[in-house]
Amino acid sequence: MSGSILLFASILLGKTGHRFGVPALLLFLVIGMLAGTDGLGIQYDDMRGAQFIGMVSLCIILFSGGMDTKFESIRPVLLPGLVLSTAGVLLTAAFSGLFIWWITGMSWSGIHLGLMTSLLLAATMSSTDSASVFAILRSQKMKLKYNLRPMLELESGSNDPMAYMLTVVIIQSVTGENAGLLDIVSTFVRQFGFGLLAGYGLGKLAVYAINNLDMDNKALYPIFTLAFTFFAFSVTDMLGGNGYLAVYIGGMLIGNSRIANRREIGRFFDGLTWLFQMIMFIMLGLLVNPHELLEIAPIGLLIGLFMILAARPASVFLCLAPFRNIKLRSRFYVSWVGLRGAVPIIFAIYPVMAHIPQARQLFNIVFFITIMSLVLQGMTISWMARRLQLSSELENEGSDFGVEIPEEMGSRLTDLTVTEGLLEEGDTLKDISLPHDALVMIVRRGEKYFIPDGSLQLHVGDELLLISEKKE
């Protein structure tokens, strides 16, 4: 009963918070905290169970994000996105780790962390959170110039493996299990290599199976795809590769291939993703004792500000330095969208499970910085895009009209919201400037729908459903 009430509260508050620009994921986290030990008194301290739920949730979120990542969108930003998701994570961890070591070495800090423990803390927070980035960009229907959205989603979807490997390797070094340089290098190569190969091979196999399985009930196709997600993660992990990377790559291959029952699969994973985001953030909120956050608040605030204002921008600017075509304001925006979320908290469970000294303090610091990041960065993503003049008036990829066309047509559907700028030359359909190969199928105004012709008068806020030829 408690779980159902918490889910009801999450849905209602998430809807209300969206109107005020508050990230729904932050509200889910707060609901968990209010329901926990210092609030309603729900006792939950099962770290192993939380780790398992986090792994399942991340698999679903990463697979769904991979399915929504289109090759044509990420192709222009593939190299900078991959550099950010690998070297960017490493640099963020290094800069932050050294700062944490320095700041906790001061007598007033009240927390004293060694160099390796400082690097471990930084490693858990070194990646941008895929759940937060996907949810916030898509719920706010962000329209960004210069391919920024696909770059940010590619980075957040593919940088978790690097942070995971850094966390595991440093834990092994601290516990003395795997301290050799050769062992560390071989771990990285194996994790990335097997992750990429397994994701590609299993993704191709899943596409073939989906298109050739003759199931009478269409509802079984999404369930089959879900089973593939868990299978890909498990097999890759057994081979010593990175399961999260395999799941993301597999999702991308399925999402960019012609598959049967795409609409059913997509809707199933959209709902499942939101469900597990709620479960994951509520659960993580239950794990923390808010009164413990007060003890680490001063040091957590300094570390969080350093990561947001120094470590993340420095790593982004260094990684993007070779790419002269990326504008300066785009680099600033990428620096700002370094959201922390569920992934750092889940990774912070690993030191607790490994019985690392001061692990509980590390967990509380990560939790505090996650809340700080969602408040400062998550609530200002749209505002920052407008300030940097990166908001785009281009159509929104995908359709919210509930219309589907056969893939064999070789066409795509997109939505376009009418703005004042679009009506500068006139307020009828024939007066506005549209992409040369696009036709307007439907106009939606509130709850009313219109079949358009050139003389239809448009209003600001009208939504247009466009059909155009899919570009190979």
What would you note in describing this structure?
- The protein is mainly alpha-helical and 472 residues long.
- Helix content is 63%, strand content 6%.
- The protein is built from 18 helices and five strands.
- A five-stranded antiparallel β-sheet has the order 1-2-5-3-4, with no helix packed on it.
- The longest helix has 32 residues, at 181-212.
- The protein starts with a helix and ends with a strand.
- The mean pLDDT is 83.
Layout of helices and strands:
Layout: H1 2-19, H2 24-35, H3 47-67, H4 71-74, H5 78-104, H6 115-124, H7 130-139, H8 148-158, H9 160-175, H10 181-212, H11 220-238, H12 243-255, H13 262-287, H14 290-320, H15 328-336, H16 342-353, H17 359-376, H18 381-387, E1 396-397, E2 411-417, E3 438-445, E4 448-450, E5 463-469
Helix pairs in contact: 1-2, 2-13, 3-11, 3-12, 3-13, 3-16, 5-6, 5-8, 5-9, 5-14, 6-9, 7-8, 9-10, 9-16, 10-11, 10-12, 11-12, 11-13, 14-15, 14-17, 16-17
